[in-house]
Write a structure and sequence with these properties.
The structure holds two protein chains of two kinds. By secondary structure, chain A is α/β, with parallel strands linked by helices. Chain A has six helices and five strands, in the order H-H-H-E-E-E-E-E-H-H-H. Chain A is globular. Chain B has helices at residues 16-27, 48-54, 71-82, and strands at residues 3-7, 32-37, 42-44, 61-67. Classes of the chains: A alpha/beta, B alpha+beta. Chains A and B meet through strand 1 and helix 4 of A and helix 1 and helix 2 of B.
Chain lengths: 154, 89
Amino acid sequence: MLEDDIDRLLPLAHISLSEPPATKAAAIEFLLDLIADNGRVTDREAALESLREREKEATTGVGMGIGIPHAKTSAVEEPSVAFARSSEGIDFDAMDDKPARLLFMILVPAEGGEEHLQILSALSRALMHEDVRETLLEAEDAETVQETVREAVN
Amino acid sequence: MPERVVTIVPEDGLHARPASKFVEAANGFDSEIQVGHVDGESVNAASMLAVTGLGAASGDEVRLSAEGEDAEAALDELERILTTPEDEL
């Protein structure tokens, strides 16, 4: 189901290979802006607030060098995923204390039901594979990132 | 190996705070603990990424299994977390 939607969920415009800011809070805004700059966020502050609320409840630093900040918010009208990566790693308060190098953001509409959990779990399963993580860390262009995600969530 | 099947109570499933409490608790025992849907593969309960990957929703049945000295205590505590509504956790 998800693999057909990758172009819509994770368009090339949502993939950055530039170095994100070094703190968790600033990196979350960096990811949000990838989606906002693509015209998909109707209220940036509201989206940011939803993301911060979710982090307050429990960190989205899931360990193994991965952070997946996510939220349901009325500030987006379609499910959207963004990608960035950090060469040094960012402290995401993960339980394994590993800094997050691969960052994915998931934003889904407030009425999205369990869609965000489906995207989150598919992405998490994909990222459990070391070869997927390595390919994403080494990708030299956005197309490679998008293709890797498409194949990995299959 | 001790195991039990538990129905997930928190409204958002094994996600956010309940998931975080669950993985934290699993890390606190010496036993090796696995969790998975009753009809699916089991994963390491001490890995947040693996547990997130299950996508276990409220009402889903999961099988917990534990191997080690404190296996029964671990299963008791993990069952408690999975069967406590999120606002009481």
